[in-house]
Amino acid sequence: MKEINLGSLLDVIGEVFSDEISIVVSNTTNYLYYRPSKRIDLKIRPGDPVKEGTMAFKALQAKQKVSEFIDRDVFGVPYHGMAVPFFHNGQLQGCVTSIYPALSDGKSVVTVKSSDGWIPIPFGKVVYMEAKDKKTTVYAGQVTGTHKNTLQEFEYLLPKDSFIRCHRSFIVNVNHIEAIYPDTHSTFVLSMDNGERVPVSQSYSSYFRKLLGF
Questions:
Q1: Residues whose CB falls within 8 Å of the CB of residue 135, separated by 6 or more in sequence, listed in order
Q2: Rounded distance between C-alpha atoms, residue 96 and residue 86, angstroms
Q3: What is the pLDDT of residue 2?
Q4: Which of 141, 161, 164, 176 could form an SS bridge with 127, CB 3.0 to 4.6 Å?
Q5: What's the rounded Cα separation, in Å, for the pair 6 and 70?
Q6: CATH 3.30.450.40 in the chain, residues?
Q7: Model pTM greater than 0.85?
Q8: Greatest pairwise CA separation for the chain in angstroms
């Protein structure tokens, strides 16, 4: 099968899986294909060497399926997934890996830095988060504070049934959306119950509509 046809086939196969799942294909030494999800992007590029410590590396070394949690030391973000090696005529050819956000460790609050100290905010009271000035600003009703975690790290921690990435700079709690308004170029603006408005970018608009079912 020609490489271009293989890439097209993998793109189609990727559509079968949830937008929550990233897919990686490698040979025995290098990554060949990568489709990031909307929640996890490990910044893998075709041609990059298979990194030591990853599930793909472990599956290739062991020549068997590997399923486990990988901490943030490998790619800078924690994740969970499964890697399955494939063979041809008994010879190891490569590996297919699925990657999805790891489950939260049970925390139910985000503790933000305010001008007076630190304030624990229950997840349910968080209205939205915004990445700016190399920090994440958390908005929760009358409380606003900053946190050192990136939005990508918060995507791992926050319950995915309530929080959705809608923009490279925003995560929203869907339970605090009062209305959704169309904007230019097939995008949207969210009216939040704290009086603020949050944009939905074009790259996230179809994902956002799919998750909210409209």
A1: 146, 147, 148
A2: 8
A3: 46
A4: 176
A5: 28
A6: 3-100
A7: no
A8: 66
